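RECORD TYPE: protein structure
NAME: Lysine--tRNA ligase
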Amino acid sequence: MTENSAAHPSAAAPVEPEELSAAEVSEQKAVRLAKRDRLIGLGLEAYPVAVPVTDTIPSVRERFGGLEADAKTDVIVGLAGRIVHLRNTGKLCFASLQSGDGSRIQAMISLAEVGEESLELWKELVDLGDHVFVTGEVISSRRGELSVMATGWKMATKSLLPLPNLHNELGEESRVRSRYLDLIVRDAARTTVLSRAKAVASLRETFTKLDFVEVETPMLQVMHGGASARPFVTHSNAFDMELFLRIAPELFLKRAVVGGIDRIYEINRNFRNEGADSSHSPEFAMLEAYEAYGDYTSIAALTQKLIQNAAFAVAGSHVVTWADGTEYDLGGEWDRISLYHSLSEAAGVEITPKTSVAVLQQLADSVGIEVAVPNHGKLVEELWEHFVKGTLERPTFVMDFPVETSPLTRDHRTIAGVVEKWDLYIGGFELATGYSELVDPVVQRERFIQQATQSAAGDVEAMPLDEEFLRALEHGMPPTGGMGMGIDRLLMAITGLGIRETILFPLVK
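PREDICTED:
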């Protein structure tokens, strides 16, 4: 709390947006519009193209943060920031200026330093939420508050609407719908943005050290593929053809591996026309990486390294603290368990790749699981989620999946009916998936045909047959390990936040 925590009666009081009626918002906006017009009428600027900033609030705090109370520095600075606290008294006014990173400094506007006319204009025209520029000496107030004793001030941007109440947190809906306000008033919102940036920078740094190449692949595609998902469909006027927003970059990244880019990755935006909940968003950021002459075991080790390095970059430790205060250990070697073996143990009945659909359906019916287009693989995965998923506490690679649900994955080298695929679970949700990639074009064509059959039977997430991709495979793709990981979910694993908090501007109704 600064010396200027109370609002001057003439200033618009900070209130929660949801507390204001439309009439109240209109009234406050009208008052501020009048002040804007008054500024312009006086020949002043309400929205200048620039102000003569010489220093930032964080840099001044770093340089002079240890000043004793009532100290002077003889150092003159020019600072700009948003007013988040305002107190106007007779001959001395106080304002707390906030920079984009949340750092604050006190501005003191006194009759003795700026003169009567400038002081009265301050009182008349300045509101909470305005951006202002002040120039003056860096001092410490009698209460020890780092301050600028202004010798002049200038409006940098006139705010036409009031800020939310800084003493009351915005509700989740308000935070998501008005993220710009969330960033202004809540330190945690800014921290999340910075944490995401640190995590992504760490991913790139790890890849660079391992000689991976970052590339970009198309978002608009003539055929959707690379995942089992329902796509968004659009139309190109220039080409007069139907196009799909990317559901995954996989098939293009594999083309690059065919071309000789042996270690490759992309941090991309994907779009899936599906449900939204606490861990799913229709638009999301994703990392995909492929390593020639690797397999699903080597790519699991890479994934663990990527996540652990990102956690350390954000939290300074492999033990992260989630938003609810829970400590979660991402360090050490992570568990690896068999999907079929763990399901058999949890369900109390042996389930293998040879277990019939009828037996699986009977077990699913007994626990109330419904699968729209049931086959062995989908039933096994749904049963595993029911019996096992909720029991995982440590970071865990769940290994060896049914062939029916993994059409782009190599058959297991020793277990019939299973592919070399893992899913990584952290904190109760799937964070990443990895594969020994299917590189045999003949088998890949057979898998695509099976997917087409499923599509004809009503499976809207089945993949179409992609002749261009098959042609690339026919030129020879080396043995390869591949992985995909949601960036939004990576932040969830490190921070414990829901997906709408880890995305800066999530899609909302």
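COMMENT: The chain has a mean pLDDT of 90.
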